[in-house]
Amino acid sequence: MSVFAPEVARPTLVFRRLLGQAEPILITGGRAVADYREAFVGIDVAKLKNAIAVAESGREGEVRYFGEVDASYASMRRIIQRIAAKFDRVHFCYEAGPTGYGLHRLIQSLGHECMVVAPSLNPRKPGDRVKTNRRDALALARLLRAGELTAVWVPDEGHEAMRDLVRARAAAVETLRVHRQQISAFMLKHGRIYPRMKGWTMRYLCWLQEQQFDHPAHQIALQEMVEAVRVSKERVERLEKVIEEFVPNWPLAPVVRALQTLRGVDLIVAVTFATEVGDVSRFESPRQLMGHLGLVPGERSTGETVRRGAITKAGNGRVRHMLVESAWTYRHPPKVGARKLEIAWKAQTRLTARYRMLTGRGKRTTVVCTAIARELTGFMWAVAREAQAIRS
C-alpha cells in the first residue's frame, strides 16, 4: 500500500519586467509573497466620533490619518470591514476609558485582534505639548506597530456586570462617608462633642436626635443630614445583599469562597479582588500581581546609588485600599477558624509574626499595614490559583 504525502505549495522563482530588467519574485500558492500586507490601526475613542489612523507594517511603512467617523456600532462595523478589506491582517487598539469594551467586542466578533491600552503606561515625549484626536490616533498606530503598548485585561460581559455592581457599592460607601463627615463637621462647628469614643452606633444616633439648637434652621439642617446618612446606609446594605445573592451563580464563586478563608478577607474584599483582578493565572508570579496593584516600592537608582521610596500606587486603587484595611487584622495573634485552608493558616502565622516584628522595629503602623498588604497579595494569588485549578 502506497502512502501519498499531501501537496504543499512550493515557492517558485518567476521574473517580471520592471524598468527594462528582470526582477525575481517568490510565488507561493499562486500568490506573490511580497503582496502580503499587514496594518496597525489606532483608534482615539470618544462619545460621538472616533479618530482613526492606519500604520502599515515595517519601519518605513506609511502612517496616515483615516479621519473621524461616527462612534455608533453600525458605523464602526462598516469602517472596520472597509479597512480590513485592504489588508491581509489588521491589528486594532484603543485606550481604556469611559466608552467601555463594546468596541473591543465588536472588533473581535469580526475576527480581528484588538488591544485595549492602559493610557497611563503609554510612552510620551516630555516636550510634546500638543494633544489632538488626530495626533493621539497616529501615536497609537505607531506604538502598536512598534509593540510599545501595554494592554489591560478585558472582562467578559458577565464579569463586567459583576464588577459594575461592586463598584456601585463602593460609590455608595463613599457617599455614606461624605454624609457622615458633614454631620461630624457640623456638630464640631457648634461645639457639640460626643462624650464617647466610638461613633455612628445606635447610641450615637440617639445622641444626635437629642440635640437642640436655638435657631430652627440649624435643627432642620441636622435632620436633613441625618436622613441622608440613613438613606445612604440603606443603599449600601441593599447592594451588599444583592452581591451576596449573585455570587453563588458567578463562575468565580469558588475563588471568592477560597479567598474568604484568609484572615481579614470577607465577602466584599474577596468579591472586589476577584472582579478587579480577574484571572490571576495571567500573573506568572505574586510579584507581578503586587506590581499590578501598586504595592511595590518605587525606585530611582543611577550608577551605584540606589534609592527606594514609597509604594508606586500605580495599579488598582480599589483593591489596594481594601488590602491595606484587611492588613490591620493581623495585629491580633493567629487563631484557628472553622474554614481555614493550609495556605490561609500559613498566611496568618507569617503575617501576624511579621506585623509584630515590624512594629517592634518602630515602624509606623501605616507602613507596617502596607507591607502586610503586599505579602497578603501573594497569599491571595496562591489561594486564587489553587481554587481556579480545582474548578478547571
UniProtKB/TrEMBL annotation:
<dbReference type="Pfam" id="PF01548">
    <property type="entry name" value="DEDD_Tnp_IS110"/>
</dbReference>
<feature type="domain" description="Transposase IS116/IS110/IS902 C-terminal">
    <location>
        <begin position="257"/>
        <end position="331"/>
    </location>
</feature>
<dbReference type="GO" id="GO:0003677">
    <property type="term" value="F:DNA binding"/>
</dbReference>
<feature type="domain" description="Transposase IS110-like N-terminal">
    <location>
        <begin position="41"/>
        <end position="187"/>
    </location>
</feature>
<dbReference type="InterPro" id="IPR047650">
    <property type="entry name" value="Transpos_IS110"/>
</dbReference>
<dbReference type="Pfam" id="PF02371">
    <property type="entry name" value="Transposase_20"/>
</dbReference>
<dbReference type="GO" id="GO:0004803">
    <property type="term" value="F:transposase activity"/>
</dbReference>
<dbReference type="InterPro" id="IPR002525">
    <property type="entry name" value="Transp_IS110-like_N"/>
</dbReference>
<dbReference type="GO" id="GO:0006313">
    <property type="term" value="P:DNA transposition"/>
</dbReference>
<protein>
    <submittedName>
        <fullName>Transposase</fullName>
    </submittedName>
</protein>
<dbReference type="InterPro" id="IPR003346">
    <property type="entry name" value="Transposase_20"/>
</dbReference>
